[in-house]
């Protein structure tokens, strides 16, 4: 399998630090801001971001994990049923600024579903999207990130693979690979 490195662990660390500084500039002491990691891979990015944000700003920010499985437009169209992940939100988002966090933005379907799922917790004042990798030119929906680490041009035959050291990989890294043709 052919792999091309997009971001190594040092670059990912720089991007997460940049995200923190952008958030500090754009959100007044986070008094009215909450963070939601989109299941299944967004919580990994969110946990790293929140720890770094608290270290840099000294402010504890409310965060949770949102599963949008049952709000997906392809939920009933699959051969095998999707497995839901845990939604873990112990606050209302009514009138709050919400920052949705995920690893890769591809077609936009997961983000659209997440916005539907999020409404169960209240109507937000504003929603922002933060992602590590923006796969440009692949959207099915007009969704665009407010914060992104790197934009990449990819083919439909390619996959963006995000590896985390705390998930058993040698180090944090993001790769572009060819999709398995089987």
From TrEMBL:
Q: So what EC number does this one have?
A: 2.4.2.9
Q: Which Gene3D superfamilies match?
A: 3.40.50.2020
| This protein's record includes keyword Transferase | yes
Keywords from the named record: Glycosyltransferase, Transferase
Query: Which InterPro entries does UniProt cross-reference here?
Result: PRTase-like, PRTase_dom, PyrR_bifunctional
At the top level of its lineage, which domain of life is listed? Bacteria
Q: Which residues form the Phosphoribosyltransferase domain?
A: 6-166
Top-rank EC class of the record's enzyme: transferase
Residue ranges annotated as transmembrane are none
Pfam families noted in UniProt: Pribosyltran
MF terms from GO for this chain are: uracil phosphoribosyltransferase activity
**Which PANTHER family does the entry link to?**
BIFUNCTIONAL PROTEIN PYRR
Protein name listed in UniProt: Bifunctional pyr operon transcriptional regulator/uracil phosphoribosyltransferase PyrR
Question: Which organism is this entry from?
Answer: Litoribacter ruber
This chain is encoded by the gene named: pyrR
């Amino acid at each position: 399998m052919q792999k091309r490195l997009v971001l190594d662990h040092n670059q990912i660390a720089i991007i997460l630090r940049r995200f923190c500084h952008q958030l500090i500039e754009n959100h007044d002491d986070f008094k009215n801001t909450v963070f939601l990691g989109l299941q299944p891979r967004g919580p990994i990015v969110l946990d790293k971001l929140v720890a770094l944000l608290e270290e840099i700003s000294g402010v504890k920010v409310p965060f949770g994990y949102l599963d949008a499985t049952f709000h997906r437009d392809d939920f009933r169209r699959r051969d095998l049923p999707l497995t839901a992940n845990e939604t873990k939100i112990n606050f209302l988002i009514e009138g709050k600024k919400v920052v949705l966090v995920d690893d890769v933005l591809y077609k936009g379907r997961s983000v659209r579903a997440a916005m539907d799922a999020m409404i169960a917790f209240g109507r937000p004042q504003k929603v922002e999207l933060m992602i590590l990798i923006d796969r440009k030119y692949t959207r099915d929906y007009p969704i665009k990130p407010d914060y992104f680490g790197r934009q990449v041009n990819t083919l439909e035959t390619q996959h963006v693979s995000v590896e985390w050291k705390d998930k058993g990989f040698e180090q944090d890294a993001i790769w572009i690979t060819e999709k398995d043709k089987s």
